[in-house]
Amino acid sequence: MRTIGVIGGGGWLAGALLRPALADGIIRPERLILSSRSGDMSGFDAWPRIRATTDNAELVAASDIVMLCVRPNDLAELSLDLSGKLVISVVAGVTMDVLARSFGARRIVRAMPNACAEQRLSFTPWFATDSVSDDEAHFVFRFFSASGRAHGITEEAQLDYFTALTGSGPAFPALFADAMIRHAIGAGIAPDTAVAAVRQLFMGAGVLMAQSETTPAELVDVFLDYQGTTAAGLTAMIEADVGSAIFKGLSAARRRAAKGLAAL
Ligand SMILES: NC(=O)C1=CN([C@@H]2O[C@H](COP(=O)(O)OP(=O)(O)OC[C@H]3O[C@@H](n4cnc5c(N)ncnc54)[C@H](OP(=O)(O)O)[C@@H]3O)[C@@H](O)[C@H]2O)C=CC1
Ligand SMILES: O=C(O)[C@@H]1CCC=N1
């Protein structure tokens, strides 16, 4: 089994991706090295054999696969030779080209998971350079499948779009949910009850939309055709152009992802 080194291994996304993969035996704790600058590495008590370091060069020397899991601006501070390694980057907005030039990497995978990885419910598009072997691609697929649904894509540029669409994870639905909670509280519902009600609503709606053969657009039509209270609400939201606000938000997130870090 290959040794994997995760730079930024103590961070939010690294933990969310690694815990499901460790639990499934896709990576072995004795074959995993995590780095951070501070030495903070919580959330891995169940796997005492994982190694931790603050020395990225040591991590790289001991690893066959190096996963980059730091924030985009922190990547610029890294000076590493990753030639000969399989490099997996989840860093938003940093292209293969930049990764190759900055780190001498050739075999590169870029992926865009989201924070639902901890619940094993991420949607994770990923893209690999031609030089990544079938065996390595199979490992990448299994690794990301442990924390959700891994989806290979054939155009790197689409990753910037997915960074906005699904990389944001719960953030955009949370904005919608929070508006509903605030409205409910304004209507006299106790805050705890409003939060509980809307949490349950989003879980139910999410599971239904994931499992039903009916698409979201068809669901909206079903309720509009019903001509009841929900149709009154939907019509008012459509007339207020809720879709335009969502389009603007996704476009802004996509622009920010595409801006990226041209050079490190
Ligand atoms: N969070 C999310 O929902 C998503 C994040 N991403 C991407 O994942 C990447 C990580 O994000 P996230 O986990 O949220 O960020 P966090 O800030 O939670 O984690 C980043 C970690 O990197 C460590 N770090 C920073 N610099 C170095 C360094 N030079 N050497 C070793 N470790 C370092 C930090 O620890 P310390 O300060 O101790 O060094 C920190 O624990 C980002 O590039 C982001 O774009 C992608 C999709 C979703
Ligand atoms: O908001 C961010 O920048 C990170 C990257 C993609 C999702 N979250």
UniProtKB/TrEMBL annotation:
The Pyrroline-5-carboxylate reductase catalytic N-terminal domain covers 3-93
Catalytic reaction annotation? L-proline + NAD(+) = (S)-1-pyrroline-5-carboxylate + NADH + 2 H(+); L-proline + NADP(+) = (S)-1-pyrroline-5-carboxylate + NADPH + 2 H(+)
What is the name listed in the Swiss-Prot or TrEMBL entry for this protein?
A: Pyrroline-5-carboxylate reductase
InterPro entries (UniProt xref)? 6-PGluconate_DH-like_C_sf, NAD(P)-bd_dom_sf, P5C_Rdtase_cat_N, P5CR_dimer, Pyrroline-COOH_reductase
**Record's keyword annotation contains Metal-binding:** no
Cross-referenced PANTHER family: PYRROLINE-5-CARBOXYLATE REDUCTASE, PYRROLINE-5-CARBOXYLATE REDUCTASE 3
Q: Which family does it belong to?
A: Belongs to the pyrroline-5-carboxylate reductase family.
Ranges for the Pyrroline-5-carboxylate reductase dimerisation domain?
156-258
Q: Which UniProt keywords apply?
A: Amino-acid biosynthesis, Cytoplasm, NADP, Oxidoreductase, Proline biosynthesis
Where in or outside the cell it occurs: the entry states: Cytoplasm
Q: What are the EC numbers?
A: 1.5.1.2
Q: What does this protein do?
A: Catalyzes the reduction of 1-pyrroline-5-carboxylate (PCA) to L-proline.
